[in-house]
């Protein structure tokens, strides 16, 4: 039976591959032989032969007739083969190393390329910053740190991806996925203006890594009411400074409410009533320029008429009437409302916490209005579930952002340089109720918030489904790191990334031979399981109006100057440990003596 055309084609393919393989060995070997033969001739005193690699490989004795047989065997036979093997082995090793290094970061077809996210690239963002920052309008050269916040490199490239100084961002990254090392710390180190950071950690975190570096550019303020960093109280802040209006008092009371009650429970009667009482008493204390701790005395004695008299004396008769109605209402209802309010503000009973928010003769007052025009840094530290203490942290962060908004309006619309607000662990220590609403205008004011959450559901718990959806929609930059275990959210991301066409080849065999057909089908660019398995060091970036991009994160410890920063971080961590030991040493000594 005569061979089929398919068998003939397969034979030609095999012959072609064999020919290419022979050429891949013969061509480099012939050139190596010519080079090595000439080297041998030079060493033995013979003349340099003209370019003839084929003859050098096949008839070396004719190319170099004056060279001895043994020398020619070594120089034109053995050495070229050894060199070819060495070069081939080195090439294979380098290829394997590159393959292994990129094994977890295989380039994904369908994700954004450089041209798809050009507005986030260096050239476009540098051109735009001149219009956003008048101080740089005539600058001949603009430093990279002045153009925007580095998010990482476009995967497997050297293209830097930056968010501009009019963007607002949400980062959803699980613990140990790079949210601090690759986002918070680099952003703080490069920020040209004031920086605000909220956190629930100190040692080995953004606090220790950036403290020294930021102190060289301006004053560092640390508010540490629960002694996470065991920081000395070298400042105090007056939360009542912005509570001399009903709106301001309501906002401050809202922080105590949000710190104590989840979004789903904030609308019930007791929560709302307790927040209203707090608001009225905070307004009275602010109008009379009293310390915030005075409200605890009024909460303990509902019959005290002092807040009523203050409100009436300052023409807040309607508010006074509301307070009077609650005080004179049914005792069971009144006592329940006051007890709810007492629970919200319970942290003010702690003298160590209260000292940070009441006037102190031995420490300067932190003034948000002055901070936003400086290059200072404010660290706001609080423990998870800090209750009233985290309410003070949220209130301070909120007052800074509101002061920045007011300053931007006075300056023509934007802060220059912009202010960076990194709200790390925002769902635990910085529960600003209307943060999703603030996102709609902060970026246009030169106030750049980066809210960092561990999961999407964490945000839903604090701001509710509608609030978290609003923040997600208002964020012009969304960064998603590894560790996404929520299947619904992972599927949402997968659908946002979209589908792409995949070429499918099918082969069939029959008596007449092999036939091949090609068809196209659509599949997810990044399926749900791939998002869940996103490797550490990678992140998804969603920018408004652009395709989703895969980023290679750039942690600070792999950047220039990392050794100096590591040493500074170690010194700051050591200082925290020393302060902790000094604080607890007397107690340990006393207990040992008693024993």
From TrEMBL:
UniProt entry tagged with the keyword Transmembrane: yes
Pfam families assigned: TraG-D_C (PF12696)
Protein's cellular compartments: Cell membrane
Major site of localization recorded for this protein: membrane
Membrane topology (UniProt): Multi-pass membrane protein
Entry annotated with the keyword Magnesium: no
Gene Ontology CC: one annotated term: plasma membrane
Superkingdom, taxonomy of origin: Bacteria
Domain TraD/TraG TraM recognition site: 418-536
Stretches that traverse the bilayer: 14-34, 74-96
Keyword vocabulary terms for this entry: Cell membrane, Membrane, Transmembrane, Transmembrane helix
The protein's name: TraD/TraG TraM recognition site domain-containing protein
Native organism: Streptomyces griseoviridis
């Amino acid at each position: 039976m005569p061979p089929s055309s398919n068998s003939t084609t397969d034979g030609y393919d095999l012959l072609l591959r064999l020919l290419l393989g022979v050429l891949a060995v013969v061509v480099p070997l012939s050139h190596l032989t010519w080079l090595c033969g000439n080297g041998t001739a030079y060493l033995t005193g013979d003349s340099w032969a003209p370019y003839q690699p084929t003859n050098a490989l096949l008839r070396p004795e004719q190319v170099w007739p004056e060279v001895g047989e043994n020398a020619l065997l070594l120089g034109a036979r053995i050495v070229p083969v050894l060199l070819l093997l060495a070069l081939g082995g080195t090439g294979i090793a380098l290829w394997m190393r590159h393959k292994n290094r990129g094994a977890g970061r295989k380039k994904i077809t369908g994700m954004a390329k450089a041209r798809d996210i050009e507005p986030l690239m260096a050239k476009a963002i540098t051109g735009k910053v001149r219009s956003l920052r008048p101080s740089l309008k005539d600058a001949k050269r603009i430093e990279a740190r002045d153009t925007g916040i580095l998010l990482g490199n476009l995967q497997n490239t050297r293209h830097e991806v930056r968010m501009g100084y009019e963007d607002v961002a949400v980062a959803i990254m699980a613990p140990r996925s790079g949210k601090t090392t690759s986002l918070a710390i680099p952003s703080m180190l490069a920020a040209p203006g004031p920086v605000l950071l909220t956190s629930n950690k100190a040692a080995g975190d953004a606090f220790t890594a950036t403290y020294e570096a930021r102190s060289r550019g301006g004053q560092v303020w640390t508010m540490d009411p629960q002694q996470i960093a065991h920081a000395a109280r070298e400042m105090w802040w007056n939360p009542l400074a912005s509570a001399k209006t009903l709106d301001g008092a309501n906002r401050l009371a809202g922080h105590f409410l949000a710190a104590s009650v989840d979004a789903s429970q904030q609308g019930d009667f007791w929560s709302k009533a307790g927040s209203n009482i707090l608001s009225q008493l905070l307004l009275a204390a602010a109008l009379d320029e009293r310390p915030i701790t005075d409200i605890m005395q009024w909460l303990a004695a509902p019959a005290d008429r002092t807040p009523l008299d203050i409100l009436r004396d300052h023409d807040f008769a309607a508010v006074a009437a509301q307070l009077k109605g609650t005080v004179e209402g049914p005792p069971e209802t009144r006592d329940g409302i006051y007890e709810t309010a007492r629970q919200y503000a319970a942290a003010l009973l702690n003298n160590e916490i209260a000292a940070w928010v009441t006037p102190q003769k031995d420490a300067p007052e932190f003034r948000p209005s002055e901070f936003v025009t400086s290059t200072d840094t404010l660290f706001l530290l609080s423990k998870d579930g800090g209750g009233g203490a985290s309410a003070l942290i949220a209130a301070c962060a909120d007052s800074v952002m509101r002061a920045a908004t007011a300053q931007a309006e006075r300056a023509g619309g934007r802060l220059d340089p912009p202010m960076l607000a990194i709200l790390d662990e925002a769902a635990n220590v910085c529960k600003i109720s209307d943060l999703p609403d603030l996102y709609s205008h902060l970026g246009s004011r030169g106030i750049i918030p980066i809210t960092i959450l561990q999961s999407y559901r964490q945000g839903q718990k604090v701001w509710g489904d509608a609030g978290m959806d609003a923040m997600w929609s208002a964020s012009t930059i969304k960064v998603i790191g590894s560790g996404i275990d929520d299947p619904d959210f992972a599927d949402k991301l997968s659908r946002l990334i979209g589908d792409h066409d995949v070429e499918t080849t099918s082969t069939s065999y029959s008596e007449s031979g092999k036939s091949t057909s090609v068809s196209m089908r659509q599949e997810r660019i990044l399926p749900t399981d791939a998002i869940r398995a996103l490797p550490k060091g990678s992140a998804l970036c969603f920018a408004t109006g652009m395709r989703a991009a895969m980023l290679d994160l750039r942690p600070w410890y792999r950047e220039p100057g990392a050794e100096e920063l590591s040493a500074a971080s170690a010194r700051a961590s050591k200082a925290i440990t020393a302060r902790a030991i000094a604080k607890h040493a007397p107690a340990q000594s006393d207990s040992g003596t008693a024993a």
